[in-house]
């Protein structure tokens, strides 16, 4: 065995002379597999090889490579998050979820108001993690003694997924450089997150007849705060790194800011196209079949349109009536719930008679029973649903008064409800028009 003086590391076998013990011509190198070998010599040789290969420059190069790899993984995570928000926003638009406060995901039910909150928390975490890794990379670059050519070679051979450190990222009008793709990704993510917020608050309002402006405002404020935090946390270290690599005075530029905001708004609009639909554009002047929600005892919300039921005037949703014992009860809420129960998870077809506004029409509506005939025109609607219109049912149950032309059409139903003391006829009530006039 080759000996070494204290304090000196032994050389590896490959560095020894051929005729030295342990050298290339040493008989021990030609030993058959399984032959006895000197374990001490093998261990000392491995330590020597490790010692020779290890240097401060290699450590710095490895740190640089690992920092860039970590950013790549984060970028993949952010891209996956964007696809998930698109997926959930698509699910929220399905008619099966339109009248529910949940998004159906197989056998699971995900609360609608929970999804946008999770999306914002995910965005906050990824922004923080990205900024943290960028600062780490910035520190590695600032403390590195690697030659500039080596640093450039490392970034050229081992770029992050989005190539955010390339020199062309300084071009404001290039949409497909690394920074441009990063902005597109997060704009689409935030647009879908806000769309999910609208689904949550808007659909909840349609079901409960109460649009929660406070909840919507808090969601939108949280989205703005998260987005501002992301911009302020991510771009300063990115700017420093690009300056270190290319000597650039990097800036986002108004073009990219404008494009990002425009893409957020476009994503929100695309995910809410049904809410801007014009019922007159539907074939045969019919609206539906589609799921609907009761806003009050005489108004449905379906496909982004409010449909006021023809020929009736239901008690207002916050109106109070008196029962047989003279006690107050929320007759308006009861009327709303009765209409909601009738249309819940059912296909509803409406025949819009005329438009009250861009998003509100007066029409006749009915529930399409499974397997029943589907009207193809207003004439067929009258034939199929002559006695089953929702207006007629609300009057029959005593939740609405017949008004206008409806006084002639639904006179028998109203007389029967009054005779049987159903709904508001069980006690005393103020006509809805008088209630509204008082401003109650």
Structure summary:
The protein has 440 residues and is an alpha+beta fold. The chain has 14 helices and 12 strands.
* Poorly predicted segments: 1-37, 204-211, 276-284
- Can you tell me the overall shape? elongated
Report the total helices: 14
Counting helices, strands and paired strands, the structural category is alpha+beta
Mean pLDDT over all positions? 78
Radius of gyration using CA atoms only: 36 Å
Estimated share of beta-strand residues? 5-15%
Q: Could you give the distance between the termini?
A: 104 Å
Major beta sheet summary: 6 strands, mixed
Helix content: 40-55%
Element order, helices and strands?
HHHEEHHHHHEEEEEEEHEEHHEHHH
Describe the 3D structure.
By secondary structure, the protein is an alpha+beta fold. The protein is built from 14 helices and twelve strands. It has a six-stranded mixed β-sheet. Strands 1-2 form a two-stranded antiparallel sheet. Helix 2 packs parallel to helix 6. The longest helix is centred in the first third of the chain and has 38 residues. The chain is elongated.
Give the arrangement of secondary structure elements:
Elements lengths: L38 H15 L2 H38 L1 H4 L3 E4 L2 E4 L3 H28 L5 H10 L20 H31 L4 H34 L6 H19 L15 E4 L2 E4 L2 E4 L2 E5 L2 E3 L6 E2 L5 E2 L1 H13 L3 E11 L2 E9 L9 H7 L5 H7 L3 E3 L3 H4 L1 H10 L11 H7 L2
Parallel strand pairs: 6-11
Antiparallel strand pairs: 1-2, 3-10, 4-5, 5-6, 7-12, 8-9, 10-11
Helix pairs in contact: 2-4, 2-5, 2-6, 4-6, 4-7, 6-7, 6-8, 11-13
């Amino acid at each position: 065995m080759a000996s070494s003086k204290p304090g000196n590391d032994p050389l590896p076998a490959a560095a020894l002379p051929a005729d030295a013990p342990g050298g290339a011509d040493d008989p021990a190198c030609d030993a058959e597999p399984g032959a006895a070998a000197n374990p001490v010599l093998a261990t000392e040789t491995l330590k020597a090889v490790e010692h020779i290969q290890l240097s401060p420059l290699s450590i710095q190069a490895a740190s640089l490579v690992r920092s860039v790899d970590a950013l790549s993984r984060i970028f993949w995570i952010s891209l996956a998050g964007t696809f998930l928000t698109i997926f959930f926003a698509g699910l929220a638009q399905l008619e099966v979820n339109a009248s529910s406060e949940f998004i159906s995901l197989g056998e699971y039910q995900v609360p609608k108001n929970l999804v946008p909150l999770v999306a914002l928390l995910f965005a906050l975490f990824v922004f923080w993690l990205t900024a943290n890794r960028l600062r780490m990379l910035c520190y590695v670059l600032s403390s590195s003694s690697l030659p500039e050519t080596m640093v450039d070679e490392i970034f050229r051979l081992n770029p992050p997924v989005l190539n955010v450190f390339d020199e062309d990222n300084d071009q404001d009008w290039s949409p497909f450089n690394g920074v441009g793709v990063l902005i597109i990704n997060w704009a689409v993510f935030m647009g879908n997150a806000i769309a999910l917020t609208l689904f949550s608050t808007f659909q909840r309002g349609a079901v409960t007849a109460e649009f929660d402006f406070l909840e919507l405002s808090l969601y939108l404020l949280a989205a703005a705060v998260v987005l501002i935090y992301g911009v302020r946390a991510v771009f300063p270290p990115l700017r420093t790194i690009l300056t270190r690599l290319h000597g650039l005075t990097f800036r986002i530029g108004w073009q990219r800011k404008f494009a990002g905001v425009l893409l957020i708004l476009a994503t929100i609009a695309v995910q809410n196209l049904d809410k801007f639909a014009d019922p007159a554009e539907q074939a045969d002047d019919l609206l539906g079949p589609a799921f609907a929600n009761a806003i009050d005892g005489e108004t449905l919300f379906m496909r982004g349109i409010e449909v006021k039921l023809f020929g009736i005037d239901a008690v207002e949703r916050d109106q109070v009536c008196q029962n047989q014992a003279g006690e107050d009860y929320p007759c308006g809420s009861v009327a709303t719930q009765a209409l909601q129960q009738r249309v819940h998870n059912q296909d509803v077809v409406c025949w819009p008679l005329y438009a009250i506004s861009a998003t509100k029409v007066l029409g006749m509506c009915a529930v399409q029973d499974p397997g029943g005939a589907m009207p193809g025109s207003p004439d067929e609607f009258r034939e199929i649903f002559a006695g089953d219109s929702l207006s007629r049912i609300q009057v029959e149950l005593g939740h609405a008064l017949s008004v206008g032309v409806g006084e002639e059409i639904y006179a028998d139903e109203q007389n029967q409800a009054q005779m049987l003391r159903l709904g508001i006829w069980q006690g005393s009530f103020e006509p809805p028009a008088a209630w509204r006039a008082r401003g109650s």
